[in-house]
Task: structure prediction
Amino acid sequence: MPSKIRCSLLAFLLTSIVIVMLQVPVSQASEAIVSVELYESSANVGQTFTVNLTIWTVQNLYGVGLTLKWNATVLRLENFDVRFGELDGVLFNPIYIAENLTLEGNYFLSATSTNPAPSFNGSGNAAKLTFRVLVPSETTLDLQTQLYDYPPPDRDPRISLPIAHVTTDAVFHGVIPEFSSTPIFLVFLFLAVLASILVKQIFRMRSRQNLLVDSKTREYTGRP
Result:
């Protein structure tokens, strides 16, 4: 009996390990991602740049909640374009947008599809944001998200449940504009020429003063 029990336990453990090994790749492959997508990670002070809030490889999506935070002394939000129901977006119409607003250093967006819209599967943008760089500094674009599924008819109670996903932030750098070397060279050349002219004028003035002093000295001493 002990030998049979040990064999049964070993078989059970081996079966469990195989099941876990088979399930882990599927879970990782199907996990949704919500990310801050930067076209460029830096821009000059005074320039604008665009950010996409993108949802990747999601299944059975029916509701979205997003909060984006940043340093308001570094960036100013100029425009926010909701992409729900668009060709490059997520969710299907009809869509109810519960929240779409900005406060200092924060952007809030939440929406859900409504009957008879189907659930969304795939990848797309939730919003496209345009920022202006205020100072040469760094800020994190911190994204907080909630995703909700479409409840199947046999779910009791029939409510939407959260969809497991990964959220990725981004870091942006505001920089001081670089000046071309050509204007600097021209300014330097102009200053050099101006300095040369001034030196020559000073030299001529001193020469004239010396001649005048020498002439006065000869008159006073009676020397020829």
